[in-house]
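> forwarded from #structure-qc
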């Protein structure tokens, strides 16, 4: 594909800034949107930054988007609130109102091709023991973030039909690897593990993918005229949090990451410990409902469609771990 002008929302996020770099490295021009002008400063250090424009915009407001979309050839929408502890309504509104605002502005500006960042959270983790492919949907989402990703993807497909948009959706599992300005819930436990804050780990399913692979998938999904539908990115789908922490310790013996894990039947003890920490002001990250959800399903996903259509060759599990840990050392 010849060089295009592409609007990238949420450009300061873990995926966003790696995606901007990927697009610039492959000759495209990028209009990168951030909510705070200071968040865009690191993007100016990328090679090809002469083809980069940084715009301040909030997906909750429709005001700036018609101007930002003018003259663009495409939109890649990554902006979201990735949080397990934030205000539920803010998480839901940012996802749903955000999709509505940017999709309608793109359509009004004549943009047809859109790549939307969803998640395996929208695919779901049930039924247990069944490999989930792009046809599966999460019909039991109750946590705010999981609901937000599911509802906003469904809305994206509805708007695509209404507005005659050429939509492609990327459904990544937990995105790890380097290049983040601040840790997301997918990587922040790495730092705590390194520091020895977990005496034992949990065998919670943790399907994961390297951020570089996710950025490349977005670019190729945009460039490839034949791409369509949903693309699951979960190449390392048979791992747990305990496997991650054990591998951190094996690769970095000087860290304090735990080698041993808590049996599943004792996992409620971790919920109680998290509750106690909450009494002393620490944000809660593990509720009884969340824990139940983790063990209700599994992380069996089929990524073959992305491998075949987007020509993806995945970074191996150890590279995923190393590139994440190095950010904290």
């Amino acid at each position: 594909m010849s060089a295009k002008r592409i609007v990238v929302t949420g450009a300061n996020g873990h995926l966003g800034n790696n995606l901007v770099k990927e697009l610039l490295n492959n000759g495209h021009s990028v209009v990168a949107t951030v909510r705070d002008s200071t968040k865009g400063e690191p993007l100016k250090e990328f090679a090809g930054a002469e083809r980069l424009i940084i715009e301040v915009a909030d997906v909750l407001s429709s005001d700036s988007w018609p101007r930002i979309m003018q003259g663009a050839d495409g939109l890649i929408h990554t902006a979201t609130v990735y949080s397990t502890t934030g205000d539920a309504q803010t998480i839901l509104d940012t996802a749903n109102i955000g999709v509505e605002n940017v999709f309608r502005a793109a359509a009004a500006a004549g943009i047809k091709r859109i790549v939307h960042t969803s998640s395996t959270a929208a695919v779901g983790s049930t039924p247990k023991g069944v490999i989930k492919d792009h046809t599966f949907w999460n019909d039991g989402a109750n946590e705010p973030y999981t609901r937000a990703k599911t509802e906003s993807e469904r809305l994206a497909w509805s708007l695509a039909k209404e507005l005659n948009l050429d939509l492609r959706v990327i459904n990544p599992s937990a995105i790890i690897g380097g290049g983040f300005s601040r840790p997301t819930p997918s990587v922040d436990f790495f730092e705590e593990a390194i520091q020895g804050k977990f005496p034992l780990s949990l065998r919670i399913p943790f399907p994961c993918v390297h951020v570089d692979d996710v950025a490349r998938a977005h670019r190729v999904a945009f460039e490839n005229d034949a791409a369509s539908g949903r693309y699951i990115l979960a190449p390392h789908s048979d791992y747990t949090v305990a496997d991650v922490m054990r591998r951190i310790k094996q690769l970095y013996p000087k860290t304090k990451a735990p080698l041993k894990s808590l049996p599943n039947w004792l996992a409620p003890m971790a919920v109680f410990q998290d509750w106690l920490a909450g009494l002393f002001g620490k944000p809660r990250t593990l509720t009884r409902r969340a824990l139940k959800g983790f063990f209700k399903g599994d992380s069996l996903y089929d990524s073959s469609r992305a491998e075949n259509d987007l020509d993806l060759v995945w970074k191996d599990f150890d590279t995923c771990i190393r590139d994440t840990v190095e950010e904290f050392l």
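QC bot note: The radius of gyration is 19 Å. The chain has one domain: 5-185+207-239+298-315.
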